[in-house]
C-alpha cells in the first residue's frame, strides 16, 4: 500500500467556435473568453459545400448521418436557423430522427455532441434486446441537444431531450436525459487486529448542496472501457492508496448477464451505469490511523477530499451514498452464496 501527495493545480481558458453567415459566405468564428470580453477572429470559407465537407460526420456502421437543408444556413441577418441533422436508425428506416440544437448550443458543441460516445451509446441502447425501440411499439422522432460540458477536449456531460412516442396512442414518454456514461466505484475493506474497516471519502457535492461520505469513484475517461484500471486510479487519486489490478474483485460481475453486470442508480433521468469493485487486505493499525482525516484529491480538478475510515459493521448506517449501500448488498449476497474467494492472508 503506497500513500501519495496531491498534485499541483493548473488552469485553462475557455474557447469555442461557431459558424456565422456573412454575405452569402459561411464564416468560421473562433471565440476566446478573456477577462469577461470576447475576442474573435473570423476566417472565411470559400463555399457552403466546403463547409459541409469540413464538418461532415464520420459514417457509422449502425446508423446513417445526413446533413439537413437547414444546415445550408439560409439565414437572415436578424435570426439564425437552428442547427439540425437527421439520423436513420436500423429499426426506423422510413422515419429519420431529427437532431436539433437548442438556442445557445454552439456549432462545434452540437457536432461534438452527436458524434460523442455518450450519444452513440444511448442510440445503441435503444435498439438492444431490452431497448425501448426493440419491439417496434415505440418510435424516436426528435432529439433536442440542450447542453454540453467539456472536460478538456472530450464531452463529460451531455443533456438532451428525446421525443419518443407510443405508436398506438401517440403519447410521449418522459425523455429528458442527463448523459454522463459509465463509472466505477471501489469498496475498500482493511482488516486490522480482528476489526474490518471501510475507506470513505468526504466531498462537497454541489447538486445536493452538502458534503457526502461516499466510496471512491470516478467516470471512465475514454471509450476503451478499462473499468479495473479506472477503479485503481480513482482509489489512488482520492485516498492515496495504490492498489494492484489483480487485487480487485468485480462485485457487479455476479449479477445476471441481462443486467449488463452494472448497477443503474437513477435510470429516470441519467444514463450512468456503475461497476462496483471490492478490495480486501490486512494492514497494521498504524495505517488505519494515518488514513483517518488525510486530505487528498486532484486540486486542478476541483477535488477537495477528506478520507474517513469507519468500522464495516457500522458502514450501512454511516452514509446515504447509494454506492455504499449497493456495494454492501452485493458483498453480503456474494458472501452468503459462497461466490467470493477466501479473504487474503
From TrEMBL:
Classification via CDD domains: NUDIX_ADPRase_Nudt5_UGPPase_Nudt14 (cd03424)
Known cofactor(s): Mg(2+)
Key words, A-Z: Hydrolase
Coiled coil: none
One Pfam family cited in the UniProt record for this chain: NUDIX
Gene Ontology molecular function, alphabetical: ADP-glucose pyrophosphohydrolase activity; ADP-ribose pyrophosphohydrolase activity
Protein's UniProt keywords contain Zinc: no
Keyword Cytoplasm assigned: no
Domain Nudix hydrolase span(s) in chain numbering: 179-332
InterPro entries found in the cross-reference section: NUDIX_hydrolase-like_dom_sf, NUDIX_hydrolase_dom
GO biological process, one term: ribose phosphate metabolic process
Lineage: superkingdom: Eukaryota
Annotated protein name in UniProt: Nudix hydrolase domain-containing protein
Amino acid at each position: 500500500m503506497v500513500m501519495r501527495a496531491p498534485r499541483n493545480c493548473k488552469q485553462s481558458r475557455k474557447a469555442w467556435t461557431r459558424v456565422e453567415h456573412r454575405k452569402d459566405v459561411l464564416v468560421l468564428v473562433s471565440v476566446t473568453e478573456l477577462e469577461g470580453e470576447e475576442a474573435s477572429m473570423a476566417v472565411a470559407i470559400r463555399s457552403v459545400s466546403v463547409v459541409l465537407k469540413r464538418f461532415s460526420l464520420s459514417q457509422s456502421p449502425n446508423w446513417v448521418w445526413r446533413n439537413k437543408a437547414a444546415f445550408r444556413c439560409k439565414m437572415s441577418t436578424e435570426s439564425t436557423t437552428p442547427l439540425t441533422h437527421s439520423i436513420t436508425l436500423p429499426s426506423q428506416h422510413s422515419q429519420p430522427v431529427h437532431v436539433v440544437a437548442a438556442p445557445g448550443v454552439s456549432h462545434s458543441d452540437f457536432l461534438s455532441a452527436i458524434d460523442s460516445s455518450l450519444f452513440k451509446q444511448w442510440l445503441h441502447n435503444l435498439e438492444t434486446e431490452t431497448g425501448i425501440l426493440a419491439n417496434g411499439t415505440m418510435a424516436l422522432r426528435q432529439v433536442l441537444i440542450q447542453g454540453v460540458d467539456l472536460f478538456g477536449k472530450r464531452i463529460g456531460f451531455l443533456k438532451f431531450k428525446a421525443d419518443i412516442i407510443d405508436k398506438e396512442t401517440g403519447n410521449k414518454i418522459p425523455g429528458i436525459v442527463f448523459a454522463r456514461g459509465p463509472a466505477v466505484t471501489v469498496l475498500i475493506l482493511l482488516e486490522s487486529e480482528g476489526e474490518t474497516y471501510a475507506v470513505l471519502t468526504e466531498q462537497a457535492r454541489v447538486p445536493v448542496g452538502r458534503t457526502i461520505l461516499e466510496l471512491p469513484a470516478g467516470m471512465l475517461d475514454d471509450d476503451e472501457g478499462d473499468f479495473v484500471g479506472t477503479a485503481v486510479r480513482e482509489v489512488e487519486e482520492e485516498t492515496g492508496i495504490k492498489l494492484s489490478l489483480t487485487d480487485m474483485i468485480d462485485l457487479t460481475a455476479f449479477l445476471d448477464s441481462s443486467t449488463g453486470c452494472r448497477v443503474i442508480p437513477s435510470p429516470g433521468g441519467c444514463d450512468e451505469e456503475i461497476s462496483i469493485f471490492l478490495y480486501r487486505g490486512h494492514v497494521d493499525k498504524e495505517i488505519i490511523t494515518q488514513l483517518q482525516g488525510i486530505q487528498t484529491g486532484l486540486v486542478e480538478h476541483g477535488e477537495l477530499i477528506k478520507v474517513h475510515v469507519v468500522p464495516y459493521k457500522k458502514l450501512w448506517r454511516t452514509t446515504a451514498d447509494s454506492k455504499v449501500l449497493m456495494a454492501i448488498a452485493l458483498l453480503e449476497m456474494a458472501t452468503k452464496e459462497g461466490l467470493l474467494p477466501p479473504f487474503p492472508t
